[in-house]
Amino acid sequence: xxxxxxxxxxxxxxxxxxxxxxxxxxxxxxxxxxxxxxxxxxxxxxxxxxxxxxxxxxxxxxxxxxxxxxxxxxxxxxxxxxxxxxxxxxxxxxxxxxxxxxxxxxxxxxxxxxxxxxxxxxxxxxxxxxxxxxxxxxxxxxxxxxxxxxxxxxxxxxxxxxxxxxxxxxxxxxxxxxxxxxxxxxxxxxxxxxxxxxxxxxxxxxxxxxxxxxxxxxxxxxxxxxxxxxxxxxxxxxxxxxxxxxxxxxxxxxxxxxxxxxxxxxxxxxxxxxxxxxxxxxxxxxxxxxxxxxxxxxxxxxxxxxxxxxxxxxxxxxxxxxxxxxxxxxxxxxxxxxxxxxxxxxxxxxxxxxxxxxxxxxxxxxxxxxxxxxxxxxxxxxxxxxxxxxxxxxxxxxxxxxxxxxxxxxxxxxxxxxxxxxxxxxxxxxxxxxxxxxxxxxxxxxxxxxxxxxxxxxxxxxxxxxxxxxxxxxxxxxxxxxxxxxxxxxxxxxxxxxxxxxxxxxxxxxxxxxxxxxxxxxxxxxxxxxxxxxxxxxxxxxxxxxxxxxxxxxxxxxxxxxxxx
Length: 565
What we know:
Blueprint: E1 13-16, E2 23-24, E3 38-40, E4 44-49, E5 55-61, E6 66-67, E7 75-78, E8 82-87, E9 94-99, E10 103-108, E11 123-126, E12 132-137, E13 144-149, E14 154-158, E15 163-168, E16 175-180, E17 187-191, E18 195-200, E19 205-211, E20 220-223, E21 228-234, E22 240-246, E23 255-260, E24 266-271, E25 276-281, E26 287-292, E27 299-305, E28 311-316, E29 328-336, E30 341-348, E31 364-365, H1 373-377, E32 386-387, H2 389-399, H3 403-410, H4 426-430, H5 434-442, H6 447-460, H7 466-485, E33 488-489, E34 495-496, H8 513-564
Parallel strand pairs: 2-6
Antiparallel strand pairs: 1-30, 2-30, 3-4, 4-5, 5-7, 8-9, 9-10, 10-11, 12-13, 13-14, 14-15, 16-17, 17-18, 18-19, 20-21, 21-22, 22-23, 24-25, 25-26, 26-27, 28-29, 29-30, 31-32, 33-34
């Protein structure tokens, strides 16, 4: 009689968040790329969204659930589609993005989230010759970032100095995935040539390599521990496979298992603390989970989460962000393929008690790096700094990080927070229509500076009572916006006023919402005409330069002909 294997994770199940905990109305990017287009940490969630004319993604605080307002601020800076985004594990406010435009950019997100479109990046890293497809932060050293591009190169960046610390030209075909080991001393890659490589980045050399999955579709790799890798891929018969490798003996896998014949590329997600592995396929509705053990058969199937809604990608919450009272060991954020929704998905170990479960939540990697960039580049290796979960819970309970978010929601520049109804400056915010905010954003003025000016105006009008107070204040407000912030300054310091007399409106200065909208449309069209004129001017300059070069060449040819005669 076969013995049933004992495991505290045998009954793990998935629980989908309620509708009010989801994020709706997002135009999630649907370009043909195997990336997840989503990244999350304990403060923010970032999602790559559809856009015309460049790569765009958006970021908002985790508490701002619900429907995303039309025109919500975005991060705009790439000229090509964004292919990957990753949060800095040691700074919750810094995110890295890469793109088809060959650049890597770092962005600093305010604690309260985005107040307007963010176009000023923190760092701009240039070194790849073709599109950059993958990013991975170093797990233990601060200011170290790995990138992999279609130019067959992996680059290790020193963020502090904005320089390439190591250039790895070790691949002969497209790089499909990259992963650091636990202490960041080695990295592993899979590529289109079907090889799995283990690389020492500081020596810029391949330690070992082997022929991996023989299918033509993409494969993925992660480290399970210092000596073992896990890969997902396809066989020659297009069967999806999962394999475990010993990097000291990669002649054949320790374990090779055929899963099914679906076509979606599988991505592994591993929890180092509980040794539970989750495998999700792009376009699948299910997520399989396994328990990894040090001895044969090395991996035990536990169960799977089933759903009728296929996933376009998953973002894994860092372990320090899970809910310990619900015995949540892992939380994913699932991007739907059929609708514009991102929903949280909690993997829960059922326990009767809501007390802290020490066996489920051992000390985990916190927000402190164990090495500096200079130490790691000098050859030092060090394990991650592990923080007891009780300390993480104490810090999170005393952080009080919702104040700034609620204040921002009260001013209407983010999604509504159902838990807060108090406005920090009610008259300042409520008397500003949405069209005014759009005008301020279009004019390039910082919205917070505008609010400060508005509050000062209200303080100066405290002597006016009743409805006339708000009416007079709105008149002054609109006039100040159109007169002070919309004139366009050219390089020659000549000012072009944009219809500041309001003669095109029936009642002069706009007061009602409809009149404000008309004014906004008129001024937006005029600004567009000015921008088009600038673009046309640049094109005309290029044409004239070409004509001038032709005339010079013709003149030189004529002079040479005369000289010969």
